[in-house]
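Protein data:
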Amino acid sequence: MRANFRVTTHPILPVEERESFAFTWQGETMKAYAGETIASALFANGVRIFGHHYKDGAPQGIFCANGQCAQCTVVADGLPVKSCMEVVQPGMRVEPLEGKPLLPPVEGVPAMRPLDMVEVECLIIGGGPAGLSAAVEMGKAGVRTLIVDDKHRLGGKLVLQTHKFFGSVDACYAGTRGTDIATTLEQEVRKYENVQVWLNTTALAVFSDRKVGVLQEGHYVVVRPHILLVATGAREKSLVFKGNTLPGVYGAGAFQTLVNRDLVRPTERLFVIGGGNVGLIAGYHALQAGIEVVGLCEALPECSGYKVHKDKLARLGVPIYTSHTVLSANGTHEVESVTIARIDGNWQPVPGSEKSFACDTVLVAVGLDPVDEFVHKAREFGLPVYAAGDAEEIAEASAAMFTGRIRGLEIAQALGRDVGAVPPEWHRTAEILKSRPGAVVTEDLPERQEGVLPVFHCAQEIPCNPCTSVCPQGCIVIEGEDMRGLPEYVGDECLGCERCVAVCPGLAITLVDYRAGDEYAIVTVPYEFPPETLGEGDVVTVLDTEGAILGNVEVVKVRSPKFADRGLLVRVRAPREIARQVAGIRVAEAPAAAPLEQYVARMADDEIVCRCERVTAGEIRALIRSGVRDINHVKAVTRACMGACGAKTCHNLIKRIFREEGIPLRDVADNVQRPLFVEVPLGVFAGAVAGEVPAREVPASHATDAHEGGM
């Protein structure tokens, strides 16, 4: 166990000195920082096993780090809490949840307080890109709006994104880092007095009387909205494989939360499962934090994420195994290695193709599911409801911001505000931003080898055009009818300002200056790693778009202009014959991670479907093969879907097993969901006072007796 697992240097995020305090884990004193969660504090002290499951003694760690599951539950000062959501406090006593959880002793009758009911015109559940963008439009229209979010700050997943965004500068802040977009949107929302914000507030349920129950700072409040906007985002999909619940196997979003939000370095070597944008970006974020990425595997023949994201990893030496799947995560108490294999045309592992890699973390990034339970319940009970962002349709955050704007205007209209119709071009832009990547084309390198000119190393149509917005001469244009085309330089004499190089979210533009002489050219390359990793006079290895080595060249200048937004612009002197091919600089000289000499086969048949109740895929398949066609029957026999998370992870996995067994889902009775979407102590519904009374911003004119309804 290392004493300190913290990020000490980062090319984008500020790493500042913070005041620490002590807490205890199993009686051992450890150090934490104000505002961080128990889970982050434990990881920062080298603790990855948070307890053991009462059913089979299996070690438990984090999985989602987003409050969606309950795998990271610990006991803090005598009460069970989700360690990924509970903020650690000075002197807090934290223990593992071992054995069956017991009710804490009760001494006397707890203090009770009246329950409040708040009436608003629009309740927004979720303070991420979609919810904030909608709130801005409703703020402008004067709509009385309440935003509730279960985190300690607004921004949602934007807070975790250190990379620059794609899309359009005008439509969705393209070329700006996600963390900065979160700050900008929050500042805009806070300007409107008619928009209230409740942080650390969890929406619990939509009730039949069209009220919404929320838990704000430990106290229950009923909200009666005229219209509900669900902007709850998405939850990560899970995957069934041997060892899939070992500590060290968790979602890419959990990893980004630890690294980019809390500046915790939770791993030394990781392997990524999934080649979509989430997995590719998480791999890049790991490298920026000084973490070795052993490899990435993707079941499809090509990564489904943006090619520019894949190219960044390839240029940094990360092996990418397409047409491969994970067989097992291996280890006794936590991850020690991962085993993958090539798959055939029927998606079956090919015997003899197995490879194992030493690692301590396996990131699962195999897609997202909408968090849309509130939408369905609101429709069932007749509460007017809208959805925006991933709660409506899984897409990029740029699309979520724009659909949020549209929903905000639509809701203002529905509430009678004179805001005019939604401009038709807004809908068109939203569809473009939600579009999937186009086909990959052959990279079109310029023939011209004189003067100064930008070289575009993007060869796939995606919704992105910030380079056209920053060129002072307007000499960069997009081929085709909209921003999904490929950029092209149409000028006669580039100024060499390097702004297009700096703004490109995919780090896919270089600038070549052929005026250096007959033998060499000066190439400006974007670089997003700590400045101390290279300097003027250094000899570095340059690579092409696909990561092939072109040669060793000299660094002649390193700049960090303000318009590069904490990125570096590195000028290298390269032979003229390779100058236009140069797309990146290899960060580390170490060779790509090689597989172990012999692959590791995990013998335990522990493909877990239900994490809460430790139900295996084999148990569920046996029931299906015996004739069971009702998920509620599966639940009654195995307790799958009955755990603390409320079937958020296992429900879709059970459906998948039915499909794999050849049973159409139309023949399967679906699971009956519990009324509450998030588990909550029963005492809060009765008004039991726990801890400090929260500072709620509830206008007195809006507070009534909550016992009118909502329960």
In short: The mean pLDDT is 91. The CA atoms of residues 295 and 318 lie 6 Å apart. The chain has four domains: 20-100+238-364, 116-234+370-434, 452-585, 612-667. The longest strand covers residues 219-230.
